[in-house]
Each structure stands twice: as C-alpha cells, then as structure tokens.
Design brief:
The protein is about 35% helix and about 30% strand. It has helices at about 15-25, 40-45, 55-60, 70, 90-95, 105-120, 170-175, 240-250, 300-320, 325-350, 360-375, 375-385, and strands at about 5-10, 30-35, 50-55, 75, 80-85, 85-90, 100, 120-125, 130-135, 140-145, 150-160, 180-195, 205-210, 210-215, 220-230, 260-275, 280, 280-285, 290. The chain contains 12 helices and 19 strands. Helix 1 packs parallel to helix 6 (about 105-120), helix 1 (about 15-25) packs parallel to helix 9 and helix 9 runs antiparallel to helix 10 (about 325-350). The model has no long low-confidence stretch (mean pLDDT about 95). The protein is globular. The protein starts with a strand and ends in a 5-residue tail after the last helix. It is of the alpha+beta class. Strands 1, 2, 8, 9, 10, 11, 17 and 18 form an 8-stranded mixed β-sheet that branches. The chain has an 8-stranded mixed β-sheet with strand order 6-5-13-14-15-12-16-19, with helices on both faces. The chain has a 3-stranded antiparallel β-sheet with strand order 3-7-4. A hairpin with a 5-residue loop joins strand 10 and strand 11 (about 150-160). The protein binds flavin-adenine dinucleotide (FAD). The site of flavin-adenine dinucleotide has 34 residues, from helix 1, strand 2, strand 9 and helix 9.
C-alpha cells in the first residue's frame, strides 16, 4: 500500500536549507512537508559548518526565542591572515561595518528543528526520497520510502531539492546527479577536534611553506583545527604528538595550546555548480545545487541565501499566481553562487600550497597575500565577501 500526502511545497532534506525554507514559507502562509532520510538525533549531532554571516544570523533572529546564535554563539570581528611568520588582522567592522558569528551548524539545526516542530511543521524523519517525477507538470511527485520500507508519495504544487550534495533531486532538474561545472583540488583538510582552551581569540588562516592551517574555535573547552593534507591521507596514521607537530609547523610565530584529540577526519575539496537549478516545478537549493571548498566558510551561508531568493519566488507564485520571480530564480541565485564560488576558490588557492608549486608560484602567492593585507581595497574585498553580501 502506497500512502499519499498532498501539500503545497514538498521539501527533500531537513538540513539548514530545507528547514529554513519551511520557516520562511510558513511565515507567508504556505504549508509544506519535509522528508529526511536521517533521524532527528542524527541531524542534530553531525558536526559541520561553524561560521555564520551576519545576514544568516539576522535571518535566524526571526526564529524568536528559538535562535541562540547571538546568545550562545560568539561574534567575531575579524580573522588573522598569517604568512611569512607574521599575523595580519582583517578588521571586519572597520572595513565593512559587519561581523560573523561562530556558532556550529548542528546548533543552528537544533534551533530550526525546535522552532519548526513547535510550529507544527510536518517533518518526516527516516523517509528517503527515491526520485522526483513529473517536474514540468503542475503536480510534481516525490516518491519515497519510510524507515519501515513502506512507500510514500508526496504530491505537491512545487518540489524543492534541499537534499545535499548526494541527493536525488538533481536528476529531475539537470538530468543527472553530476552534470554541471566541477573542479577538484589536489589537497584536502585534516580536521581535528580537541579538548583545550582556544589558541587564539579569532580564526587564524595560515599559509606556510609546509601548507595551510586553520586554527578555529568551538567553545571555551573544545577547539577545531585543520591542516592541509593529501586527499588520500589515512586519518589514523598519525600519533597525537605528530598531529600537534603538523599543526604547529604550519602556524609559525604562534604557539598552539594542546589537548587530547577526540575526533579526526579528512575533508575533501570540491567546487561544483549544477548545470541547472530549476526545471518546471522543481528547484534545487544549498549543497544540492552547489558545493564550495570550505576555506571561505560559504557553504551553509550560501544555502541560506538561495532559500531567501526561492522563498520569495514561491510566495509570489503560490500566493499571487505570479511566475516572474520564479523565472528569475536561476539568474538571481546563480549571481551570488558564482561570486561565492570565486571567493572560495580564491581563498583556497591563495592560502594552500599546491603539490606541484614552483618557487615562482610560492613567491607570487606571498605577493598576493601582501596585496590583500597592505591594501585597504584588497582587505575590504575579503571582509565584504567573508561577512556576506547583502541578502536580496
Ligand atoms: C566539515 C565541514 C565543514 C564545513 N564548514 C563550513 C563553514 O564553516 N561555513 C559554511 O557556511 N559551510 C561549511 N560547510 C558546508 C555546510 O555544512 C553545507 O554547505 C550545508 O550543510 C549545506 O546545507 P544543505 O541544507 O544544503 O545540505 P545538508 O546540510 O547536506 O542537508 C541535506 C539533508 O538532506 C537529507 N537527504 C539527502 N538525501 C536525501 C534523500 N534522498 N531523501 C531524504 N533526505 C535526504 C540529508 O540527510 C540531510 O539532512 C562545511 C561542511 C563540512 C562537511
């Protein structure tokens, strides 16, 4: 027996993109159903992004009492670019009058889930979307399977694929899961979580002859740090002492506060933009539409920016019967997506050392870093992009 649910907007994925979309649609009086293959506990415990743009925090403020980004998170007014043994602070408020917040993605998800469940949102956990049918009709369908193996069909006026980089909605929009613009990088990040006090008050992005390192914070007692490694690296190959050595070598001129390492992982880098993000009555947002390397901290913020544009287009379509904003959705969203792709690629290539880098490449890279920190125009571009362009 196949169960069928009818709704206005079917959302695949209860990540930041899908949950925020349901919140914005609900504020316009549009009901939606979300399906996610994971359980609530799994969603709330996956450690991922950590930096929120100012516009993202302002949007989360609309969750009212449920948003804790400002109370539990930490405002950061700058980052340090470290190279040639010296640190250079990029002062965000002085350059662009904006800031970012350090607030982990799983905490954002806890806030969004609590707010949506409190508002009576229909969220089906443990339900896997198998495919999306009839994208160009006015009744697109999501075919799914619940945790007990029972089939479920969600029939909607519109379907949104917010199902991340390995989702199924891409097939209905761009014809395959992988067609689009793609770039792979010859390095990855070795990430650790450790129990220690912070080594620095703000994030340090360090370029060194041994490669890149990012010294980031989580809380007063837990820190997140990364160093550049080979994409095929085995995370268990290093002892804790070797990991601290690798990190310390890549931030010359600063002393890291060490502590027990309780998690280690390899984070591969990809730049991807789907060939199409809208087909009839099915759209893609967030990682389903694009992925960026993590150096610019753009992934989750970009997912949220897509959702703002799509929510307005869906309100115009489903409340006023006006298709114009939906027709403009790809062009409007892709304008920002490609700016963020460029910024993420630029930060990545400026700060990492490619395995085949020549002496010329290395010296040019230092020249590029100096051009950023010694020029107000250069620093302003970095500050503007890092803190986030205004949301439309
Ligand atoms: C280690 C790491 C660090 C990062 N750091 C940053 C950072 O500092 N700043 C930043 O902005 N970004 C960062 N990112 C990127 C950020 O986490 C993602 O861009 C963000 O999660 C995208 O949100 P999303 O809602 O589009 O997709 P996701 O968060 O991937 O959510 C997709 C959801 O869809 C569900 N799903 C998938 N397929 C199906 C299916 N077939 N049926 C039903 N449900 C399905 C999944 O279970 C998931 O819950 C980082 C990523 C990683 C991995």
């Amino acid at each position: 027996m196949t169960a069928t649910v009818r709704t206005r907007v079917a959302i695949i994925g209860a990540g930041p993109a899908g949950l925020l979309l349901s919140h914005l649609l609900a504020s316009s009086g549009i009901e939606s159903v979300i399906v996610d293959r994971r359980t609530r506990e799994e969603i709330e415990s996956t450690i991922r992004a950590g930096i929120l743009e100012q516009g993202t925090v302002e949007l989360l403020d609309t969750l009212g009492e449920f948003s804790r980004a400002r109370t539990v998170g930490h405002r950061h007014d700058g980052i340090e670019l470290r190279f040639a043994g010296e640190g250079h602070r990029i002062d965000f408020p002085a350059l662009v009058g904006r800031s970012v917040w350090l607030y982990p993605q799983h905490e954002v998800l806890k806030d969004l889930l609590a707010a949506r469940i409190d508002a009576g949102q229909d969220i089906r956990f443990g339900v896997t979307a198998d495919r999306v049918d009839d994208p160009t009709s006015d009744r697109p369908l999501v075919h799914a399977t619940d945790a007990g193996g029972q089939p479920l069909v969600v029939e909607a006026d519109f379907v949104v694929g917010a199902d991340g980089s390995r989702g199924v909605a891409r097939e209905a929009v761009s014809g395959s899961r992988s067609s689009g613009y793609f770039r792979e990088y010859p390095f990855a990040w070795f990430g650790i979580l450790c129990e220690a006090p912070p080594s620095a008050p703000e994030l340090i992005y360090s370029n060194s002859p041994d490669g890149f390192a990012l010294i980031s914070q989580r809380s007063a007692t837990v820190q997140r740090m990364y160093f550049q490694c080979d994409p095929g690296e085995d995370p268990d190959r290093f002892s804790e002492a070797e990991l601290w050595d690798a990190l310390q070598k890549r931030v010359p001129g600063t002393t890291l506060t060490e502590g027990p390492i309780f998690q280690r992982d390899i984070l591969r880098f990809r730049s991807f933009v789907a060939g199409s993000i809208l087909n009839g009555r099915v759209a893609l947002v967030g990682d389903a539409a694009h992925t960026v390397p993590p150096t610019g901290a753009k992934g989750m913020n970009l997912a949220i920016a897509d959702v703002v544009v799509l929510a307005r287009a869906l309100e115009a379509l489903l409340v006023d019967g006006d298709e114009r904003l939906l027709e403009a959705f790809p062009e409007t969203a892709l304008g920002r997506i490609w700016k963020a792709q460029h910024f993420s690629w630029w930060m990545t290539s400026m700060l990492h050392v490619a395995p085949d880098a020549s002496d010329f490449d290395r010296m040019r890279q230092l020249g590029e870093l100096r051009s950023v920190v010694e020029s107000e125009a250069g620093s302003t571009y970095l500050a503007e992009a890092y803190t986030g362009w205004p949301l439309v």
